[in-house]
Amino acid sequence: MAHLLSTSCTLKIAPGCKPNSRLNQDSLAFSASFSFQTSKSPFRSFRLPVERFRTNSTLQETTIPSSGFRASSGEGSKAEKVMVIGGDGYCGWATALHLSKKGYEVAIVDSLVRRLFDQQLGIDSLTPISSIHSRVRRWKALTGKSIELYIGDICDFEFLSETFKSFEPDAVVHFGEQRSAPYSMIDRSRAVFTQNNNVIGTLNVLFAIKEYRDHCHLVKLGTMGEYGTPNIDIEEGYITITHNGRTDTLPYPKQGSSFYHLSKVHDSNNIAFTCKAWGIRATDLNQGVVYGVKTPETDMHEELCNRLDYDGVFGTALNRFCVQAAVGHPLTVYGKGGQTRGYLDIRDTVQCVELAIANPANRGEFRVFNQFTEQFSVNELAALVTKAGKNLGIEVQTTSVPNPRVEAEEHYYNAKHTKLIELGLQPHLLSDSLLDSLLNFAVEYKDRVDMKQIMPSVSWKGIGAKPKTVAA
Q1: Which SUPFAM superfamilies match (predicted)?
Q2: Which domains, and CATH codes, for the chain?
Q3: For residue 393, what pLDDT is reported?
C-alpha cells in the first residue's frame, strides 16, 4: 500500500493496515488522500492527514532487587536502531529528533490519534503544528537524516508485528499512550479507551519484543502519578520493608488517582512480570510534569516546532500558567494549591531517554527511574510565573478555582531521583531566564489562544456513562 502515498519522506504502512471502509464523523475534519482502519473502535477509525496498612513495620531506603542497578549491561548495550512509538506527540517528537541527531537510526510509529482528540474536543495547540510528513521531510532537508514512518495502531498486533519485522529495533521508546488524566475522566467511553489503548498497546509491544526482537530494550514512559502522594518518601520503583521481623524489597506501593494513572500502574505490573518470565530488559521512566516547548532540534525550523497544550484537558501546570499570564487571564490554582509534584524541562526528557538507551537494563531486569529534576507546589509555580511576568511588565493575577480532581491539596512529598543523575543527567533547572523565555513564547502566539479552553471542564466526581461531546 505504500504506493498510495507519494512523498519525499520514508513512509511505511505495514501489511497489517487494511483499507478503511467507514469513518466516524469526528474524522471528517481531516484532509487526506488515503485512509485505513486498524480497529473496530470508533476512536481508531479515522482519516489520516497526509501533510498526517499500618502494623509492626519499618520502612527503609530502597535498593533495586535481583540484578540491581547497572550503568551498562554488556550484550546489546549498543543500540543503533530506535523505534519511537508515539513519535508525533509532545515528548515523542522532541525525542525522535534528538535521537536522530545523536546518530541513531530512528523510526516513528504513531496512529496520529492525538490529532483526532483535538478535533473531537475542539481544542488546538498554542503553536501551529505541521503534519508528520512535512515534519520528517523538513528534518531530512535540514540534516540529511531520515526518520522512517510507520502509521498505524499498536493495539493492532498484526500491524505492530510487521513493523517490528521491518524495522528490527534494538530499543523501543514507548510514548504511545493516551497521556491525559482529565481525558480519561471525561466519560465512560474515554476511560475505557484510555485503559484499553494503554494496557493492550503496551502488552502488544511486550509480545512483539518477545517474538521478534528478544534482545530489544524497552524504555517505557511511566508517570510519577503512579505513586500518588504517600506520607513517606517515594523511592525509585522499589522499597525495602521490614515487617514483623522479616525484610524484603518490594515494588513501591502504587496509588493512581485517575483511570489514566491506573493504566500506567497496570503497564508497570505487566512489564515487571514479562521481565521475570521472559527475560525482557526494560526501563520504566516515571516522569514528572514536563514544561517547555523548545529543544535545539525543534528550534531549527518552524515546521519542526513542537506542540504546546494549554487547555484544561491536555495542558500541564506551568505551560498553562504561562499562557494564562500572556493573555491576561488569572492563573487557575486548583483548590488550596499545595499539590506538589516533580517537574522537568522537555530538554531533560530527551536527555533522560538517551541515557536510558545508552545504558540499558540487563536481561530480565525491570529497572525504574524517577524522571524529574525539581519539586514544586502549584502555589510555588504561580508565584514564579507572577514574578516573571512582573519582570516583563505583565501584571499577573491568581485565582483559586474549585478543584475538579479528587486529590490531597496539602501533603508531604519527597521523591528520590538519583539514578539518572548517576548516569550523567545534567538538568536544566527552572530559572528566571527560562520563565522569561516561556512567557515571551506564549506572548508570541497569544492570538491563537481560545479563552474558552482555559478553565477546567472535567470533573472527577462528575464522570458518567453517557458520552460527552463539545457543543458547536
Answers
A1: NAD(P)-binding Rossmann-fold domains
A2: 81-453 (3.40.50.720)
A3: 97
